Amino acid sequence: MIRTTPSHQPVIAVRGLRKAFGPKVAVADVSFAVDAGEIFGLLGPNGAGKTTTVECISGMLESDDGGISVLGRHPSQEGTVLRSLVGYQMQTSALPSTLRVEEALRVFASFYPKPAAVPELLDTVGLTHRRKAAFSALSGGERQRLSIALALIGNPRVAILDELTTGLDPQGRRDVWALVERIRASGITVLLVSHFLDEVERLCDRLAIIADGRTIFDGTPEHLIARAAEANPEIDNLEDAYLALVDANQTHYEGASA
Ligand SMILES: Nc1ncnc2c1ncn2[C@@H]1O[C@H](COP(=O)(O)OP(=O)(O)OP(=O)(O)O)[C@@H](O)[C@H]1O
């Protein structure tokens, strides 16, 4: 249930979200709420509707129906204000290959009224020694850290991180996880879209699972394991619990449409 009392207003509240692209319903009915200071995970199979949901939250897409509130504001009606309060991790593949790390941060800083200090941000993401490196010379992990820095350049209160550690080696993943924990410790609320259950278990306080455009779970990782164990007592870890729940949902819908 979404809590709306002023003393405990969620930072992000999504209620009954719906978004279609022509005949394709990408998001049919998604609801969840993220509290201040949380790292909240958004999970679901490929094509479930996660990116569409976060693009509606960030104001990049306009929803067809349902309510979204971010820091008490509506993304499509108050997008200008929210743009500096919500940092969305962009895909760095969009950056010119010759652009240097520090230049990229300075260019993006110029778009915001109160940007983060570039030297401090370089330090936070561990790229000070690579500040003069061209984008094309960065490793996968360094590119990922740059994309996180770009999400933080506007000094946001909320960071939306999508596919945070895809393609990184084990050390790179751990470095990025530590960075996300530092981001949270600095007071930023994090919405994390992920396919990796170990990442979610390590980082997230709570999570929502979306399947076929609908929220099928909203709660803590422990709650998810307990829910799955009710149906199958052998389930004792998050990955098995997640897979069992998604599978049960698929069977339910296939059964309903048979
Ligand atoms: N612009 C669009 N036009 C038509 N269909 C779209 C568009 N964007 C997304 N879709 C479709 O909507 C559904 C949900 O897509 P979305 O990208 O939100 O899923 P996702 O959960 O983020 O998937 P993944 O984990 O693969 O990134 C998919 O079937 C996708 O093909």
Number of helical elements: 9
Radius of gyration: 19 Å
User: At the third CATH level, what is the topology name of the domain at 12-79 and 193-255?
Assistant: Rossmann fold
DSSP strand count: 9
Our measurement of the CA-to-CA distance between the termini, rounded to an integer number of angstroms, reads 31 Å
**Helix content range of the residues, please?**
25-40%
Global structural class: alpha/beta
Q: Runs with pLDDT <50, length 5+?
A: 1-6
Relative strand content: 15-25%
CATH evolutionary superfamily of the domain at 12-79 and 193-255: P-loop containing nucleotide triphosphate hydrolases
> Helix and strand succession?
EEEHEHEHHHEHEHEEHH
Residue-averaged pLDDT: 89
Which CATH architecture of the domain at 12-79 and 193-255 would you pick?
3-Layer(aba) Sandwich
The CATH class of the domain at 12-79 and 193-255 is identified as Alpha Beta
Give a list of the ligands. Answer: adenosine-5'-triphosphate
Task: Please give the largest β-sheet.
Answer: 6 strands, mixed
Give the strand order of the largest sheet, numbering strands 1, 2, ... along the chain.
Answer: 5-6-7-3-8-9
Shape: globular
Membrane topology: Peripheral membrane protein
Keywords: Antibiotic resistance, ATP-binding, Nucleotide-binding, Transport
GO biological process, one term: response to antibiotic
GO molecular function: ATP binding; ATP hydrolysis activity
